[in-house]
Amino acid sequence: MSDRKQIILSAWEDREALKKLETVAAISEVIADLDEGKLRVASRENGNWVVHEWIKKAVILYFLVRKMEVTEVGPFQFHDKIPLKRDYDKRGIRVVPHAVARFGSYIAGGVILMPSYINIGAYIDAGTMVDTWATVGSCAQIGKNCHLSGGVGIGGVLEPVQAAPVIIEDNCFLGSRCIVVEGVRIGSEAVLGANVVITASTKIIDVTSAEPKELKGYVPSGSVVIPGTIPKKFPAGEFQIPCALIIGKRKPSTDMKTSLNQALRDFDLAV
Fold it and tell me: The whole model's pTM is what?
């Protein structure tokens, strides 16, 4: 591990090293390990998420050492540097046409991919469903037993290499057309209502107490979140801008795989 890491870090500083066979081999081995889940771009250590920058560097360098090639899938043709993921049957993954996952993404057994897209470096843990036209960007980390509903957009990140990827922890439910980008972390068992958009700068406002509490970049575990707006003054006047509202906590009686509508009905809402 330390040898591969050093080879990749050296090649990052000196791109001439990409001409060496040992460098290409080290990069290819790291991507293969990402594909198998032996490595991941971010992992939880002592309760905190840690980003492994050298692995992100290996992903970026992989694009430089690969050549464009044609891939034929029945009547479909692709022209890209990254091959498609294979052997879904051996891995115990259900894949519905036209789901596409790139090599170098890890997808655990028991995952269901409806027509969707998974980019290189992404990690999707067991029991998760990626629903129709949902996308999981490069290096995003998705936990166990999550449901990414139709049209959900999970942002990817390769550069800058120190930037954290989007992290969706275990047992989360993201409603249709949710967008989570720019390294935002969604705590375990959170429920995001349809059309919630959270970026690094989005105000996440907990309105469950007498006074609002503002957060950024993180949704606490078990939170139930809906889209909202807050006023902001501009030279042309005062206008409403988007925010995310935490309206309560997921109830213990609510099953982890409950529908989004049921979770919101607990708070007399339908979104």
Answer: 0.93
